[in-house]
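Late entry, written up from scratch paper. The run itself happened at the end of the previous shift, but nothing got recorded in the book at the time, so transcribing now.
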Amino acid sequence: MIKYLGSKRTLVPAILDVVRAVPGARTVVDLFSGTARVGHALKAAGYRVRANDHLAYAHALGRCYVEADRETHERDAERLVAELGALPGRAGWFTETFCERARYFQPKNGARIEAIREEIARKCLPPVLEAVLLVSLMEAADRVDSTTGVQMAYLKQWASRAHKDLALRVPALLPRAAAGAGEAHGLDALEAAATLDGDVAYLDPPYNQHSYLGNYHVWETLVRWDAPAVYGTAMKRTDCRERRSPFNSRRRFREAYAQLVAAVRAPVVVASFSDEGFLARAELEALLATRGRVHVLAHDYKRYVGAQIGIYDPRGRKVGTPGRLRNVEYLFAVAPEGISLDALGAPVDALRALP
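Output as recorded:
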């Protein structure tokens, strides 16, 4: 899967343990699915997953890793990936913007990304199969990019991986889950919370001022394929300034989170949150306690790579130093009276170390 700030890769086993502790759970709603890493793991564990994310690239990832089933889509995907992978490059707007005016990819790879994306658009494929191919292309591009993992900027010197040739692979599709076919939606989170029902809802909203659209604007443009107006050294889409989420606002976050918690259509809520987020643990517990008894699991983990290497200006000059290098990731599990989560034990404060 793509490099992703906020990925729950290291937390997935703990999330699975919490969901498994819910008696009789079959359907899990993931309201901020992002890379679909959590949804993919839940599907592999046999749960029916209803994933949601309002960003186009994340919706494509959800369709690929949650909605697409191996037995239905893998054969066609293999054939099309081989066909697309043989296309020669054809430079245009994407190459000029992200490889010449900016330096996210080597121009040779930018031209191939562009040719492949144009061919995917030309084929007018069924949406789920198209999403599988878009994810194949996104992941191939991610393997030859020149960033620290976010698209707020690119490296001053080319990353060694950027010199490699772009190579498509079929994504790791899963067979249909035992509990039923998965779904991927592209709704606003509050609309999805009020629309999608299940046995468990997983909440992982943005928790600070950093927008996922701004951090991954190249993927948004690759999936939308709309050649938007761009600005700045990073060549961000201009709608990064306009599509503001209340979850990226300190002033608006608490109200938005309270509305989200109230709207969820699942008896059990599982929520992850970092200690560097807009709300303190006690505030989160108070909001979640409106739905039942709150269990808290705390995990210590290493911050993302940008926090490890320091802070630089657009000319590559170091202008600041990072603060703490580790954070605490909280996992809250909330159930109403009548649903026991006793398998989790009592609320705990002890930190569990994550890689």
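DSSP finds 13 helices and twelve strands in the chain.
(Scratch paper discarded after transcription.)
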